């Protein structure tokens, strides 16, 4: 397959090159001293240059690299920067909070049962009801998603 390019690259308008030339002219016109001449000389057009990874001494910045597949054949590999390594996996554990809530629920059931059994003793009933209301308040504070999230253990 042959490809032919018609025209010359100089035919295309390059605004950046024109702005660069204008900037050089302005710095020369504004000041005739040596500093203005140095600034005009220092403004140069950017030049693209290929630097191999061996010369730069660093790993290529691209996401693709050459590697080998399981049979030893050359293969292009993709390094995904968003990929999370297995060492960075986090496990959340709410077992401690769940046990604490279950303990409070059992305590509430026991107090309710003790109140039913102590039908004759008014002092004992008041004392048990006071304990029951305290357990219910604590249970209402702890038995919700916000408390679970705040007290989750991460590994």
Written overview of the protein:
A two-stranded antiparallel ribbon has the order 1-2. The chain has a two-stranded antiparallel ribbon with strand order 3-4. It is built from six helices and four strands, in the order H-H-H-E-E-E-H-H-H-E. It is mainly α. The model has no long low-confidence stretch (mean pLDDT 78). It has helices at residues 15-30, 34-42, 53-56, 95-117, 122-142, 145-150; strands at 64-68, 74-78, 92-93, 153-154.
Helices and strands in order, then pairings?
Blueprint: H1 15-30, H2 34-42, H3 53-56, E1 64-68, E2 74-78, E3 92-93, H4 95-117, H5 122-142, H6 145-150, E4 153-154
Helix and strand content put the structural class at mainly alpha
What's the total helix number?
Answer: 6
Proportion of beta-strand residues: 5-15%
What series of H and E elements makes up the topology? HHHEEEHHHE
Strand order of the largest sheet: 1-2
First-to-last CA distance: 59 Å
Mean pLDDT across every amino acid position: 78
Major sheet attributes: 2 strands, antiparallel
Large-scale geometry: elongated
Residue share in helix: 40-55%
How many whole angstroms does the radius of gyration measure? 39 Å
Question: Uncertain segments of ≥5 residues (pLDDT<50)?
Answer: none
Tally of extended strands?
4
Quaternary structure classification: single chain
């Amino acid at each position: 397959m042959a490809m032919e390019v018609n025209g010359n690259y100089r035919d295309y308008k390059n605004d950046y090159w024109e702005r660069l030339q204008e900037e050089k002219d302005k710095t020369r016109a504004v000041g005739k001293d040596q500093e203005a001449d140095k600034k005009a000389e220092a403004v140069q057009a950017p030049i693209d240059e290929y630097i191999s990874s061996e010369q730069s001494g660093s790993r290529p910045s691209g996401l693709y690299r050459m590697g080998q597949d399981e049979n030893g054949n050359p293969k292009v590999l993709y390094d995904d920067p968003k990929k999370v390594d297995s060492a960075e996996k986090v496990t959340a554990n709410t077992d401690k909070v769940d046990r604490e809530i279950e303990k409070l629920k059992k305590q509430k059931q026991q107090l309710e049962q003790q109140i039913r059994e102590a039908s004759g003793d008014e002092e004992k009933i008041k004392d048990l009801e006071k304990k029951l209301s305290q357990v219910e308040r604590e249970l209402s504070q702890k038995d919700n998603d916000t408390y679970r999230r705040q007290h989750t253990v991460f590994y």
